[in-house]
Amino acid sequence: MNDIDAWVWWLVGAAALGIPLVVTAMPEFGMFAVGAVAAAVAAGLGLGVVAQVLVFIVVSVALIAVVRPIATRHSRQRPQLATGVDALKGKQAVVLERVDGAGGRIKLAGEIWSARSLDGDRAYDVGQQVDVVDIEGATAIVI
Question: pTM value?
């Protein structure tokens, strides 16, 4: 295998590693593919097979050691912008119909919601401000 063929084989290997990256969504395959591209560059520069393999290993391991922990940390973080039901928790609402443990109605974020009190013995009268602590289905739980 001459130097021209070596870089082509490394690029074929990089493309082959890209297939399981897309199919399995495992970023490690992408990191190996980048290592193969780096080895193709080394082969294009005329480095020997041993140097090409070392470039592949060093780049791949470095990416896995550095990028993977960062990506894992970011994937475990909760989004800073709450949306949907999560955005309604902690909001204040106005009681439209008496709310107690059995139910009632509130105006929350410009919409009318069914609601019930967290403490079944507690009741809130029309016009009172309440805080939404949870959403269960289409019912706001308030205190």
Answer: 0.55
